[in-house]
What we know:
By secondary structure, the chain is mainly alpha-helical. It has helices spanning 2-21, 24-30, 33-56, 68-74, 78-88, 93-100, 104-118, 123-132. It is 74% helix and 0% strand.
Amino acid sequence: MARIVILYAILLAAGAFALEWLQYEYFAKAYPFEIYVTLIALGFAILGFWVGHRLTAQKPAGPFEQNRAALKSLGISDRELEVLESLAQGQSNKQIARTLGISPNTVKTHVASLYAKLQVNGRVRAIEEARSLHLIP
């Protein structure tokens, strides 16, 4: 943040120097006042966009790394993790059962176990908690 402020100050100083160097008074008399106001406004707009872009630019996230320590400490099994990933994809219990080759009752058991281990009481909240713990992408 300090680097951007210092750079901004340097750019303003350079602009002031350039105006003095170009004999501002001569050009102020030769051209109408509106042109200078427009040029200064344009300069500040460009500078503002640049500073805003620099301050709000987000770095791309790296590849997903699963938090194995959290999985182990919560005691989530591989099958429960598969069910959780299917939940995150928006599948119903029947779809999950078909995909994993288990009964819908077994899916319900895994979901209930996940709710208890993640200390939540709904699918959406379970997915949010799992993502915040980096269990699923």
